[in-house]
Amino acid sequence: MNDLMIWATVGIAGVILLVLALLQRKNVSFNKLVLIGLVLGLSFGAITQAIFGSTSKVVATAVDWIGIVGNGYISLLQMLVIPLIVISLISAFTKLGDTKNLGKIARNVLTVLLTTTAIAAFIGVITVIAFNLQGASFVKGTASKDNLAFLQQHQHALSELTVPQKIVSFLPQNIFEDLAGTRATSTIAVVIFSLIVGLAYIWLKEHYPNDALAFERGTDILDKLISRMVRLVINLTPYGIFSLMAKTIAVNSIKTIVSLAYFIVAVYVALLLVLVVHTVILLLTHTNPIEYYKKVWPTLIFAFTSRNSAGTLPMNVEVQTKQLGINKAIADFSASLGLSIGQNGCAGIYPAMIASITAPVVGINIVSVKFILTLIIIVTISSFGVAGSGGGATFAALIVLGTLNLPVGIMGIVLAIDPIIDMGRTLVNVNDSILAGLVTAKRSDMFNEDVFNGKEKIEQA
Asked: Strands, E, within 275-316: which ranges?
């Protein structure tokens, strides 16, 4: 009987995917398809859990099969991440024209990323105080032994490195290992390697212009090739979102969610406040927030459902250049740097909240100015090198807890509902990197107002 129910559930999901394919063939707009995929995924997941329960064999097996679409989609996007980082950053140098703007662009991007991360950390502390979450009095029960063992093992590994050693770990040692993503800091190592190649290109351009021109043409060809690959994969977004959202809703126990609902609400309030800060920055740069969010929401929805900042990189670059009118060089910088530096959700709000909840357990007054300032500084510095994929927030929080000599027990409790929190964190991460590109483009006079307002269209690869 179970087998029949499993295949019936998978069959219904297959029919839904076929409906999405038919709508796509009828040229329904991409944004509408994304919304339809999201709504169908939510509905399908909720109905499936209501009928069978989140822990049933039917749900576990069915979502495993349905997950082929969502997980496969993420895998295809992740396949493009490292090549896209390398080519995007190098082509940023080749397409920049006047390399004198390079320092200004990098400073502006980093300023936005790190400033908003510091603000996000402050918001995290204030939210903990406002919701009275100090000491984890909001939860009933204790952390599982497996969760605690996992966290303590990783915190021990991190504590073995001094601060200078952690900084050195950001640098590429064996670029082939980093291209394969074998280290937690591989992403930022690849970013640094690509920047070094770009700087070497500038020297080549000054001393051997003909060779530089050949390198530029080769890079441009690779850039176009990868852009076309990105477009092919992005066309699968509605199907990926349906699958990912269906799985998320179907397998997360309502009981677990309810038991930690207060913490979930607090985190999402903090995330919404950071988005308000982002909106204020848009207004200060004379950007229409409504028009902005209309253009970026498909990218943000994918970030939300996939919980993968790195996987969202191709869509991030595309929405900046094709929809917002941001110069390609700046889009490449902000999207790539935003993967490993200054993530507002994973490296800003979350570690600040976890540290603020934990600190009273060891007698620290989190309302004190000294604690708040110390925490903001530590969080901001620790935001360098946070991997833009699953586990980045845990990594960032462990660094902060270790630096402040705080226990990891609270993390063991909230780890059960981490996927639900991670969706919102990832959305905020991606939005901040897009915002950094927009602000930098406007400050550098490399922003196409006509593209933003829909008066000019950039051809897709």
From this structure: none
